Amino acid sequence: QVQLVESGGGLVQPGGSLTLSCAASGSNSPLYVMGWYRQAPGKQREVVATLSTGGHTNYGDSVKGRFTISRVNAQNTATLQMTSLEPEDTAVYFCYARRTALASIVWGQGTQVTVAS
């Protein structure tokens, strides 16, 4: 059973940077895709960035050019580097993974990111 643990959230000023990390356990092979979603109060969960083992990336429109996702396939870890943060980026960020393309989604417990002066 795959489990995901996030770390790195916190409070940052507008224009600042923050890095989130996600570590997966319970899989002996690289997960098909890992990434991040976020959910702000009163809003639906939305994609932030995903990265497959084949190197395909997908970024949400609001973070393109500011956030960068990377991963180490052999270790099943993923990192989200966030720069030029804006108050609108405030949300709970959830690590996301699928073991295969058709497997169920696995979610982490979430980590809070707050952008405020």
Discrete helix count: 0
| Percentage of residues in DSSP E strands | over 45%
Q: Which regions contain 5 or more consecutive residues with pLDDT less than 50?
A: none
In whole angstroms, the N-to-C terminal distance is: 40 Å
Q: Tell me about the biggest sheet?
A: 7 strands, mixed
**Cα Rg:** 13 Å
Global structural class = mainly beta
If you had to describe this structure to a student in words, what would you say it looks like?
The chain is mainly β and 117 residues long. It has no helices and 11 strands. The protein has strands spanning 3-7, 10-12, 18-25, 33-39, 46-52, 57-59, 67-72, 77-82, 91-98, 105-107, 111-115. The strands form 2 sheets. Strands 2, 4, 5, 6, 9, 10 and 11 form a 7-stranded mixed β-sheet that branches. Strands 1-3-8-7 form a 4-stranded antiparallel β-sheet, with no helix packed on it. The chain starts with a strand and ends with a strand. The mean pLDDT is 96.
Provide a short characterization of the protein structure:
Helix content is 0%, strand content 52%. The protein is mostly beta strands.
